[in-house]
Specification:
This protein is α/β, with parallel strands linked by helices. The chain has 24 helices and twelve strands. It starts with a strand and ends in an 8-residue tail after the last helix.
Length: 628
């Protein structure tokens, strides 16, 4: 099978959040061939280079979403992208093309500025249809005539956006948009729609793949939408986080005013709905993401929750030691049973301030307790300032304690980085304590908790994101921003070694069952087979030779059946026993029974029992919402 893997700011670049997952997916499915279609986010990311690609990656196509200094786009195709984008050597559209552009952009702007009425399901209202009409209309114009990025930077675009923002039914925030606001939104819209102008939409590129797999929603899924539109290629969308939620959270830090933020939110909301509506299957990384997708219009029947796979072998030795010592009724003395450990990136969302105040309560109940914080500040000046503030608060709450007048004092709270002589690896960091703590106020999929579970450690976590789903009863969960509750849970585990051992063993068993790389690969192997079975490839180029003559056995027999060839047709009926039907003279035959052959009567149709739907019950899984 030939898979078109679509990424946005990730694989194959050396930087990016989902690059590791994509690399494991490609290397773990060597029976498939992968074509990479990657969007880059910055010049710095491109300068960092690519990771080493496996042999099953047959082709890589890249394109930037950041704006070069000359204001033109660059592509990595065999043909120059600029020649496809510019019509007539930087000439503007003619009268007919200008009319098409105006109609499509007007429909898109109307859908963006008009919210759905209360009670309307996402994707069902007129706004979703208008957005699809405008989006695909602009894509077809870019494919046929080029020059879309130039048209989106023109004065006509600003006039269309201004007319849409002043129309009846527009919210007051958008109605207050000024000309600078509209110019800023037009620039952001052009950047967001840049994938529509790429030279990826032909029979040699996306038209040649059997399946498009988008590693995220948003811009990465746009080429998949067009591949389905132009060539009928099925689209699979995987989201370990929610791009729309990330956009909402980052909007407050943007330099734009309220009208621009409202228009951008409307665009990204409509795009997310269209992606979920067109995707054959959507695979959220957890049920927290799944709920967001359903709210944006995803069909629960097409969702399959697939947890991101993690390398359990990195933590195998620590987990096995904890399991052995727990079975023997002994404490794991590597880090001391009275040590709490926190691992992660240090930033405000992790709420280390609440953790330090909670540890002050722990020290009152357990004077010998220690807290070891392993991590480095996240990128940005704000994270570095937050780390300095946490260190100052720890020094204030827990002054250095010296055993004598001439010895150096050592505080009960330490901030350390992984890689030193004492803690050379991440597994050693988790092994340094008896209880692992997570104090976040915002969290998606808690990777640090899964790693602690692989190590067989008991955990205390705040109830945010997918924490409860990951823990599943194998750890203690408290409300966020509640130092008193966090301290109480930590003290309860510190004082009960048997409970710590039971929770750690249960956590390790759960992690090995649900969160391994093998589980992730098996799930996508089955999903690939399910999608291709419902959408068999029927390219004419694969069924004829160089002279145009048909190739023997090139077309599978099941491709001749109408509809989905994995479903039983209406001509299939249950096969009764013919002897039983004729056993009692004068008795009417059962419905569907085949009577003995008689002279002069037509031959009855041969029948058999219908087969169950689906290709592989084990691969496809049970029916339902797909949540594991």
């Amino acid at each position: 099978m030939r898979i078109g893997l679509l990424t946005d700011g990730a694989y194959p670049y050396a930087t990016g959040e989902s690059r590791l997952w994509c690399d494991r997916l490609v290397r773990g499915l060597p029976q498939h061939e992968f074509d990479l279609f990657a969007l880059s986010r910055s010049a710095h990311q491109e300068d960092q280079g690519w990771v080493r690609l496996p042999s099953q990656v047959s082709r890589v196509r890249t394109a930037p979403l950041w704006t070069p200094e000359d204001g033109t786009l660059r592509g990595s195709g065999d043909r120059g992208l600029l020649a496809r984008l510019v019509t007539g050597g930087e000439q503007s559209y003619g009268r007919r093309d200008r009319g098409r552009f105006t109609d499509r952009l007007t429909a898109l702007a109307t859908a963006i500025r008009t919210p759905d009425e209360a009670g309307t399901e996402a994707g069902e209202g007129p706004g979703a249809q208008l957005f699809a009409e405008g989006l695909y209309g602009l894509a077809e114009l870019a494919r046929e005539r080029g020059g879309l990025h130039l048209a989106l930077r023109s004065e006509d675009t600003v006039r269309i956006l201004e007319a849409a923002s002043r129309a009846r039914g527009t919210c007051r925030t958008v109605q207050s948009a000024t000309v600078p606001d509209l110019l800023a939104f037009a620039a952001e819209l052009e950047r967001a729609l840049r994938p529509l102008s790429l030279d990826w939409y032909d029979q040699e590129s996306l038209g040649a793949v059997d399946l498009c797999h988008a590693a995220s929603g948003g811009a990465a899924a746009l080429p998949g939408l067009l591949a389905k539109r132009f060539f009928g290629v099925p689209l699979l969308v995987t989201e370990h986080g929610v791009p729309l939620r990330a956009h909402y959270l980052s909007a407050a830090d943007s330099p734009y005013g309220a009208p621009v933020r409202a228009l951008l939110a409307g665009f990204h909301g409509r795009l997310a709905t269209e992606v979920y509506r067109q995707a054959a299957i959507v695979t959220p990384g957890n049920t927290h993401v799944s709920r967001w997708q359903r709210r944006c219009g995803a069909d629960p029947a097409r969702q399959r929750t697939v947890y991101p796979g993690m390398a359990a072998e990195r933590f195998g030795r620590v987990g096995e030691d904890a399991e052995r010592l727990g079975a023997a009724g002994e404490d794991d003395g590597a880090g001391g049973p009275g040590t709490l450990v926190w691992v992660g990136r240090i930033e405000p969302s992790k709420d280390l301030i609440a953790l330090l105040h909670a540890f002050a309560e722990v020290r009152r109940a357990e004077p010998g307790a220690r807290l070891r914080v392993f991590g480095a500040p996240a990128d940005g000046e704000e994270a570095a300032t937050y780390l300095a503030h946490c260190e100052a608060l720890a020094a204030q709450l827990f002054p250095d304690e010296a055993s004598g007048a001439h010895t150096e004092g050592v505080g009960p709270v330490t901030f350390e980085e992984i890689g030193g002589p004492e803690v050379p690896s991440l597994a050693e960091a988790y092994a340094a304590g008896g209880v692992i703590v997570l104090s976040s106020v915002v969290e998606g999929f808690p990777v640090s908790l899964v790693e602690a579970m692989f190590c067989g450690r008991a955990t205390v976590s705040t109830d945010v994101g997918a924490v409860v789903e990951v823990i599943g009863g194998t750890g203690l969960v408290v409300p966020p921003r509640n130092p008193k509750a966090l301290a109480g849970a930590c003290v309860a585990l510190l004082r009960d070694p048997e409970r710590r051992a039971r929770l750690g063993a249960a956590a390790r068993a759960r992690a090995l069952e649900l969160f391994t790389v093998e589980q992730n690969l098996a799930a996508f192997r089955g999903i690939y087979l399910e999608l291709i079975s419902h959408t068999p490839v029927r390219r004419e180029a694969d069924t004829v030779d160089a002279h145009g003559a048909p190739l023997p056995f090139a077309t599978p027999p099941e491709a001749c059946l109408l509809g989905h060839w994995t479903r039983p047709g209406p001509h299939l009926r249950p096969q009764p026993d013919p002897d039983r039907a004729a056993a009692v003279p004068g008795r009417a035959a059962e419905p569907g029974a085949r009577l003995p052959d008689r002279p002069g009567e037509p031959e009855p149709q041969h029948t058999r029992r219908p087969e169950p739907e689906g290709v592989c019950a084990v691969a496809a899984g049970p029916a339902g919402d797909g949540d594991a």
